[in-house]
Automatic annotation (TrEMBL):
It comes from Rossellomorea aquimaris. Pfam families: Amidohydro_3. One of its GO terms (molecular function) is hydrolase activity, acting on carbon-nitrogen (but not peptide) bonds. Keywords: Hydrolase. Residues 46-522 form the Amidohydrolase domain. Residues 286-300 have a biased composition (Polar residues). It comes from the Bacteria. This is Amidohydrolase. Residues 286-305 are annotated as: Disordered.
Amino acid sequence: MLFINGEVVTVDSEFSVMEAVALKDNKIIAVGTNEEILALKGEETDIIDLAGRSILPGFIDAHAHLELYGTNRLGVNGKEADSITGLIERLKEKAKTTPEGEWIRGWGYNQNHYAEGRHPTRWDLDQVSTEHPIIVVRTCGHISCVNSKALELAGIHSQTENPPGGKYERKAGELTGLLLESAHMNMFLSANYSEEEVMHGLELASKDFLEKGITSVHDAGGYGPAHIRSLLKAVSSKRIRQRVYALYGSLHDSTGMVENGLMSGIGTGLGDEWMKIGPAKVFIDGSSSGPTAKTRNPYTSDPDDSGILYLSQEELNMSLGKAHQAGWQITAHAIGDEAVHMMIEAVRSSLENEPRQDHRHRIEHSGMTPPDLLVKMKDLNIIPIPNPAFIYEFGDGYVSDYGERVNHMFPLLSFSEHGIPFAIGSDSPITTAAPLHGIFSAVTRMSKSGKVIGIGQRITVQEAIKAYTLNGAYASFEEELKGSIEPGKLADLVVLNDSILTCDHQRLQELNVELTILDGKIEYAAKKEGVI
């Protein structure tokens, strides 16, 4: 297969832009001028004229939740409602087709975008049903609301103590049904999907990700070892078409999951080019938009709150220190600056006890990273995995909750200036999985309302592309295998409908994926005349 007359964004060491590229079987065999590439034409060669359109390395989403994304597709989308009343109506429709006693599930609501300006309550959800258990998960994935039936089935009542790392909201001593952090995670485990539903969801997720040009995913976890088994089964049966780097963590009892991995004798890198075990992962704090992230200073919006911690420094050091000693790459969910600092200290402690070169330890999100933490991160060669699409989705709320600290949130330019290699993740389904939207957010720092949030952290299109391709491969020890368009690398590529390098920055998220090539085969083609 030959692609000619294009904008071949190679993402090589010089960030070269060429005219044409040749593929054979599942590898890239040549990059160069039209003349050089056409000279390779054979009797069975397919030639695709790009007519100036961009062809890039396949996008690598360095942090996404495939199972959660897919199973969400089976529930009620709270983002499609603009009020709690609208959400209730959608849930009532779902109840009509839900067998008696089974869970009704919703996702994606954001109280800041609802007309009522508040979270739903159990009394709201009781309007839908008191016979079905109901759970509606906030857009952040760290908070949910359940109805009275769900609380009853879980044995949770007004005298129930808050779980470690979580909270049951109460008003006048009564449970409202709002569950924060580990309280939500525990409930979600009770409301989990069947294996058949999970496999169907993974297939839906893979299809959607292919349409967005994503050829590799660093899966950021589900619930327990069963999630890893589901990924393996879905990859081997080709329900998941992407290459998967599986973070070994759980949204419930993350330290227990890490211990499980250590006892099994497996480790980072086990697998093949289609699925590999990634880093051991734990949770340190909450979400950026809840807000439940653990910050050094109280929230601007609430001087009595500074977030939720799942672990103490001692617990964190012990869990990840053991994983590091056993040869694992390690990482943690860390949003607030206090949580980021704790993870940096855990890496420092691990390396002092057991020095290792090229460990590539990571910090998932690294949401709030001020200058003093940047220096420490650089000194320890830590790879942050930021989510610039959060700026678009939640940026207006960040200004309210964190004030001037937004200038150090997902600080992509600061990472770049400090020589810290960062790989971008969508954290989908928290935000859209579309890499082109992530690139738009990284370059413009624009929120939904059109405000620019942290203007000093904008980066170039080229830097954003690298973070979605080669740096993603680097974060999984696979930069020699994929992440750039160079001879010998896997033929994972994406063709856009226009030039990404000359596109107006405000139009970046309007670009479309026309072709997704994975392992040398066209796995997705937009239904548009003249694409192929």
